[in-house]
Amino acid sequence: IHGTHNITVSGVTAYNNKGHCFFIEDGIEQDNWFIDNLGLNVVDAQWGEGMLPSDQQASVFWITNANNNLIGNAAGGADTCIWYAFPQSPHGFFEGTLFPNLLTPLGIHQNNVVHSCAQGIFVDHGPNANGDTGDGSWWYPRDIPNFPQNAVGSDIQKFADHVSAHFSGSTVYKCFNIGVWARGDSTVWTDMKYADCGISHQFAGLDARVQNSIMIGKSQNVGTPAPWDYGRTRIYNWAGNTVLGYKFYHDVGPTALMNVHFSNYFTENLPNGIIAEAAAVGTESGFSSAYIGRSRFFHITKYNVDSPFLINRGSTSKGDRNANMVDTDGSLTGICGAQIIATSPWIRYDGKSTCVFHVEMNAYVCPPDYPSLRELQFMDNTNSAIFASETNSSYSDSVGKLFPLYGTRGNFAEMQATPFGIPNLNLDVNLYNYYRNYIAFIPQNADYFLEYPRGTPRDLTISVKYSPFGDYVNIAIPYPPGTTFNVTFDMNPYQKCNVQLST
Asked: Which site in 74, 283, 411, 416 is 20 to 30 Å from 206, CA atoms measured?
């Protein structure tokens, strides 16, 4: 559909199509209806064959403007079954048109069926001006019924009201990578049914939730397995990955699961020493941190589930080391308000002996009165960066070219010389620099002594995120006697005050 509005495509069957099948081409098109269509076995275009570069990762439905409607369609056999790929603004013939694609509210998405794709429903990676879809694109649906042609996206994002994007009644199965992936604000998924996906659902977003839905890890639909599949068609790279219902992502939240049933997430011991593990909920490995302590579960039910929650085993990633979440009503752990926390000594409060380690979760379950956890971050700004090409061995250690940071909480001797958090290697793609950034989730209302063995940085940023009024953290860091300080206190990005201190 090219430059066209208010039409209906209904009852169409498409098979063996090359490149995107049913698709909104330039992103200007609105109020179109796709009803009861079937698309199967979409073939990726080769270089130079497609209309768009993304035809090389073809989808059954390619939607570049959210204000369109998909009802009762079925899609299967493609890289992506339904791809919501919102650009910053329209492309092609309509390039230069002022239209806020990344701010446009969703039309209707209802009662669709997707199966046998790598990604089932994928909301991310809109095309840039060159048509490339390699970068993530955050969707901020806003209430903009009368979009002023002279406005800019940032103004609308700042002043317009949030609106929720409602996806309902869809069935997602046999998607070997992920059933649903959604990056953006306020997406709500209701009456969803998932089965036999590598990961059923994952958010990279804010204020997102799944509700009144069911996730089945391993159903009776075993497919047509090859001999090496051991009795059922398996997810991509299944031997090394855990089958998960819901998977937390990094640096996002809050998210919520409400009235969700998990079934048949069980671990299998297969021939040749292969362990095919499964869990209802799991964490993302290899990323900076998991703000999942702000996320909540309500009214969760389970059947034949070995592990209700699993932190990746043997991982040293920041996400896994900082993982924590709250079982609001006890439906995951049986303890109302319980906190599930990782095994890192920093996230574990030594003064509490009531936390119980659960092997099946690779995590501790702590009582409701466990201290609240907040993210504490240290950024070493000295000389801005260490260049990636630097070979000075004094900066080298097992985790990268970083000044190490060690510390102790209170008087607990077992934490002496414990590395603080996990270093975060932020690569500046423009300057090719590594910034020295340490992150940890810590219990509030406690005293911390932190030390850089190679010398405290001259320029240091310390931040605590999501800390309510009244909570505190006392931090002691050694500096040479007579040091003069220039302290910038920045609690509100719109209000700054400088305080001069000296010893």
From this structure: 74
Closest by CA to 406, choosing from 349, 465, 456, 446, is 456
Which token pair is 21?
């099948």
**Any residues with CB less than 8 A from the CB of 202 and at least 6 apart, and which?**
178, 180, 181, 182, 246, 247, 248, 249, 284
Contact between 422 and 398 under an 8 Å Cβ cutoff? The reply is no
Whether pTM exceeds 0.90: no
Interatomic CA distance for residues 325 and 365, integer angstroms: 10
Q: Closest by alpha carbon to 246, among 170, 313, 325, 315?
A: 325
Distance CA 141, CA 156 (A): 10
Distance CA 73, CA 491 (A): 49
Give Rg (Cα) of the chain.
25
- Confidence band (pLDDT; 50, 70, 90) for 392? very low
Structure letter (DSSP) for residue 351: T
Tokens of 430: 């423009």
| Tokens describing residue 314 | 């043997």
- Tokens 């190679």: give the residue: 454
Mind listing the pLDDT tens digit for each residue in 184-232? Answer: 888 999 999 999 999 999 988 788 899 999 999 999 998 888 887 777 8
**Separation CA 376–CA 458 (nearest Å):** 19
